[in-house]
Design brief:
Length: 465
Amino acid sequence: MPSSAPLKIVLISPYDLGRQPFELAHPAAWLRQAGFEVACVDLSQERLSDEALDGVGLVAVHLGMHTATRIALELVAKVRALRPQAHLCAYGLYAPMNAALLREVGFGTLLGGEVEPGLLHLARRLAEGDDGPQREPLIELSRIEHRVPDRSTLKPLSRHAALILPGGARKVVGHVQASRGCKHLCRHCPVVPVYGGRFRIAPVDVVMADIDQQIQAGAEHISFGDPDFLNGPGHALRIIRALRAAHPGMTWDAVIKIEHLLERAELLPELAASGCLFVTSAVESVDEATLLAFEKGHTGADFARASRLMREAGIALSPTFVPFTPWTTLRGYVELLEAVCALDLVEAVAPVQLCIRLLVPEGSRLLDLEGFRSLIGGFDPALLGYPWRNPEPGVDALQVEIQSLVEAMEGESRRATFEAIWARAHAALGQAAPLLAPSSAEEIPRMSEPWYCCAEPTQAQLTAL
Ligand code: SF4
């Protein structure tokens, strides 16, 4: 136990793509092993009750994505009203990026990167009565001791995002994090301002212990939440070999960039044989100028090649896009849809991916791109980013239209939604939409909540606070 007054801590996850939050479970393990009383609140599962804040000295909110940050900003008034004496901490990728705004609304401590030592230091000093200004590093990138995440007080896996197989059968998903950060420097990516091209791995035995405990808790599929699973291919291989040895038949998915899929194409058959059902890949665009601006490290042709290799290997590719940027043209948007059709990926693209608008947060490397600042306005706290307007008439309006259409067609098939988007995009160009060729591709396995990192929170998420 801490030597002085006991300190009660609440860790809050506003939203984490519907997954059971690793970023509550891992800090919880650190803090509980140091003797602190820790409660975990996952706002995608429950409201923050008055009782949860009763007697709490530290409220730490995980900001792993834009949506979570927007929700946290709405939440802060409630926390301050119910428990004004509690110290507020925000941690995760979006905490350092939004430092000025978060401090303004009352967060006393902000932690990014490998946050656990900072959280523990903060808890210890608060327990000793030191509620002074932040002394913990804003960004910590030293190698930390990984612990087996403590998931004991999180809601059951069965209540979280599920795997949906072709035909509709659902499987319970365990969410694992084998690394944090990324060795790449894509300009638009929120990982980059914090990790700056570095990544940190968790030991195989710790990752496997987390997998084991989630399988015991009912997981029928493992989803790796690493920013890129092949940043360390040797590490990834050790994990999937251990997974296959310990749990033959268990399936999994991961996020892997196009560049890595091509560079390590020889690994694809082994990934498939070890149960990899699908790979999410941030393709972002098929427009070469946009890909260059993003420094994505791949071309449109690379995307096509990776798609072919994945199909040959028997692994579904689930591409994600940022189709609306300051450089998007109406013609270019239609070309993106044409590429999705040509690669027979209509069933593989979650409709939300076709309406995402580029978010430019504070700290984005896009701000360093020559000429980029002339395309954007001043920082907008309500947006948590820099607003921009597309110079071509009709592009911004098309984005709004496609977004409304995707929301209105929620629950319909991906193909039906794609056909509607196809028609709208051609109408915006003043053209009749050509008939779509019938697809030979089958539905692919997917999560019940699509992967993205920069959407606005829904009204339901905000009113559930
Ligand atoms: S977009 Fe993906 S590959 Fe690029 S820096 Fe971010 S996590 Fe890494």
